[in-house]
Amino acid sequence: LWTAGHIINDSIQAVRAKVGSDAVILGLSGGVDSSVVAALLHKAIGTQLTCVFVDTGLLRLHEGDQVMAIFAEHLGVKVIRVNAESRYLAALAGVSDPEQKRKVIGNLFVDIFDEEAAKLTDARWLAQGTIYPDVIESAGAKSGKAHLIKSHHNVGGLPENMTLKLVEPLRELFKDEVRKIGLELGLPAEMVFRHPFPGPGLGVRILGEVKKSYADLLRQADAIFIEELYRHDLYHKVSQAFAVFLPVKSVGVMGDGRRYDYVIAIRAVETIDFMTARWAHLPYEFLDLISRRIINEVAGISRVTYDISGKPPATIEWE
Ligand code: XMP
């Protein structure tokens, strides 16, 4: 009989049998899968678990603080927060090609995670939020060691000299099952049912070179959009929604003054599998509100556009 409670109990027994009294390390991203692993392992092995949360500076508004509030303060999980914004910005300076940005971001994550893991000298296990669809996908796409890591290049790969053994308690579960378990373990519904967020984060939602000033503007615009989607009961009617920063300037007027500021694109899609998607037909009144709020409240943005491109041919992300 499948109930979240049974699965949790079985997983707890299995994890305890596997790792014994060893220390376990987990890269916590704030996404659903790694969050559920953190909550599950915390329940199974308590302080034997240490999570490493890398704040890349490419996260959404207040996201780093929220992750810490939920895990460290609310659940009592041991979390090391690494404030790596300046390292990411330095590594990304002058890099504008999307795939190159992904590589830089992924490699830096591995470096930072590796540094933290090296400090935890008693760690014997690496926990990962691999779920069943990841297993199938990477079995088809890759062979060898690559199948052990999450396919979405969130994590660029495991360090070559890695001596940690893997523990992957969600390996047999589908996403909806992972969500049910997350709720049962006490994770907030907002976290469990949040839209997907790419591993490279805002790094691929700022077109071209990434700059802190761009990321700050984008975070504000994105937060307004998401807040209004919730307020109008539209958040769960779309599959993914976000703002994109366009580093081009456009002319506007405000009061007596002339503005020459950046452009924000708003994207919302409906999809089942993220392989194809249609742009969400959000109400005009709603789009009007978003545009007004962003232009009035985000100093530095003078124009808002709505992306009406389907996938294919356009991808969901702009990069
Ligand atoms: P695209 O843009 O390819 O996106 O239509 C399909 C889904 O994948 C997400 N996405 C990524 N996720 N690392 C990730 O973890 C990435 O580099 C990446 N690129 C796209 C995207 O947000 C959408 O849900």
- What proportion of the residues is helical, as a percent range? 40-55%
CATH architecture of the largest domain: 3-Layer(aba) Sandwich
Number of helices: 10
Order of helices and strands: HEHEHEHHEHEHHHEEEHE
Would you tell me the overall average pLDDT?
Answer: 93
Overall number of domains = 2
Low-confidence segments, ≥5 residues, pLDDT <50? 142-157
Q: What molecules are bound to this protein?
A: xanthosine-5'-monophosphate
Classified by CATH, the class of the largest domain is Alpha Beta
CATH topology of the largest domain: Rossmann fold
Catalytic activity: XMP + L-glutamine + ATP + H2O = GMP + L-glutamate + AMP + diphosphate + 2 H(+)
GO cellular component, one term: cytosol
Binding site for ATP: 29-35
EC number: 6.3.5.2
Structure, described:
The chain is an alpha/beta fold. It has two domains: 4-192, 3-Layer(aba) Sandwich (Rossmann fold); 205-306, GMP Synthetase, Chain A, domain 3 (2-Layer Sandwich). Helices cover 41% and strands 19% of the residues. It contains ten helices and nine strands. The protein has a five-stranded parallel β-sheet with strand order 3-2-1-4-5, sandwiched between helices. Strands 6, 7, 8 and 9 form a four-stranded mixed β-sheet that branches. Helix 3 (63-75) links the parallel strand 2 and strand 3 (79-83). Helix 4 (85-92) packs antiparallel against helix 5 (98-119). It is globular, with a radius of gyration of 20 Å. The chain starts with a helix and ends in a 13-residue tail after the last strand. Xanthosine-5'-monophosphate binds at residues 102, 152-154, 196, 198-200, 240, 274, 311, 315-317. Homodimer. Residues 2-194 form the GMPS ATP-PPase domain. Pathway: Purine metabolism; GMP biosynthesis; GMP from XMP (L-Gln route): step 1/1.
